[in-house]
Amino acid sequence: MKSLLMTTAVAALAATALTSTASADKYADVVTNFTIGANIDPLASHADPTRALGAWNSPAAGHAVTLGAGGTLTVEFLDNRLVDSTGDDLKIREHGGADDYMVEISADNTTYYSLGSKAGGASELFDINSVVIASGIDEFRYVRITDITEDGDTSNGAEIDYVFAQNSIDAPVPEPASLALLGLGSLVIIRRCK
């Protein structure tokens, strides 16, 4: 009985500590897909999709990813989720020319819902309320941005500097110490069973 109680206590402690919710920043964390469009040298520094991650970078510093004509960028929020709340929920900073782009969001990186298109050149705001109502989904992890081009367009496409979840909730993230505690708990269980 004492062994069972000890095993249960260790397992409960490990499960509770497995995730913690640190205060997350609201910027996209990782690039999950980047398909470079036409008119862009894939080796050029402005073709680096990680330039769209994190906080705003000064346009003078040239820290934005250029999608290329018809290019697509998909980013993911790891430590937070985009949610609907009062006002606009998503902010995308595009600088450069007034290049049109389409924005879609997804909870699972499989099914995407359109938020419409915008003409770039500044920070654009999106309200996800209609998507939440239509889909029944209230938390989104992925944002896909696709440059919209006309036939014969010779532009470099939209230049994305950041993707920001103005309205978001923190998501639980496993901590390394918690994983170590879970491993220790497993060793105790194995030893008690012998």
UniProtKB/TrEMBL annotation:
<dbReference type="Pfam" id="PF07589">
    <property type="entry name" value="PEP-CTERM"/>
</dbReference>
<feature type="signal peptide">
    <location>
        <begin position="1"/>
        <end position="24"/>
    </location>
</feature>
<keyword id="KW-0732">Signal</keyword>
<feature type="domain" description="Ice-binding protein C-terminal">
    <location>
        <begin position="172"/>
        <end position="192"/>
    </location>
</feature>
<protein>
    <recommendedName>
        <fullName>Ice-binding protein C-terminal domain-containing protein</fullName>
    </recommendedName>
</protein>
<dbReference type="InterPro" id="IPR013424">
    <property type="entry name" value="Ice-binding_C"/>
</dbReference>
